[in-house]
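User: Show me a protein chain along with its predicted structure.
Assistant: Here is one chain, sequence first, then structure tokens.
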Amino acid sequence: MTTSAPASTPGTSLAFAARGPVSRAVLAHLTGDGADESDHTALAAEAVAASGDIARDDDIQLALFLLYASAYGSLPTLAADLEWDPALLATRRLLEGAFESELRARVPIPELPEPTVDAVGRALFALAAADTGPSLSRYFAKKATREQAEEMLVLRSVYTLREADPHSWAIPRLEGRAKAALVEIQSDEYGGGRPERVHAVLYARAMRAAGLDDTYGAYVDDVPAVTLASLNMMSLFGLNRRLVGAIVGHLAAFEMTSSIPCRLYADGLRRLGFDADVAEYFDEHVEADAVHEQIAARDLAGSLAEDRPELLSDIMFGAAACLAVDGWSGARTLDAWSAGLSSLRGRVSS
């Protein structure tokens, strides 16, 4: 991997580079650094008005990532007592409102099915099957270089080292069949009671085995805006109670499009001679997600639509948005690799 040094070494504090005035002001506020006392809400309003593509706007997406990280507690350098700071919340609401509006404007939604378990399940599987764009995982299995494999692990780390957490926000917001289905899925994601089998732990092990830093956030400076947008979209859906249908639809589509790509990633890693610990994370998801997709589509999304039909539109929106934004991120990576370039920010392949 042709890189500058990682943003941190394991176990140390992380220092991110701002990507514009909004993220600079938000970061200064969240860390208690008085170096930038700008009005980040006013700056956010200016940034939204000036941005032609919020999903690919580095400044906006990094600011959102940091604001959501405050709620997760995923970055210890962010002051815990600022999680509910009114000014930061105002900035977050402004940025995420603009992001949601852009997603709703740009993501095509299929015709809504009947709000029944069977109809919603079939509609979600049809939506996933219609997603026939260029496949990053197929390229990876047959053509990726070792450097590109390391880049793939870096890109996925911003979500996968916190895997399942965005969807878990929905648990207290669901009832009955849908809640039981989500807890069943999440139990597997969190290792079924075995800490060493937690999927985020498996991914951390994969990164270490590949010679990468497994500290959460170590590579944020390297990750492009659209990759941050993929995680930020999950956080947007998960953290807003009114969007519980969207986070359920997102999880359904996420699980439906995981099993086969994970098999292809594992094939590529073995072809490149990576240690078995690197491929293990992906092997785990081949069978697990083949089961999860049925639970997520029918028992979770289908039963939620049947019990609360007013959420059907958001369920389908969340699923379509998952496929669209992950498609944008994957296409950016594939285009860079196909041209012999790095997919990471500020890097040039050798």
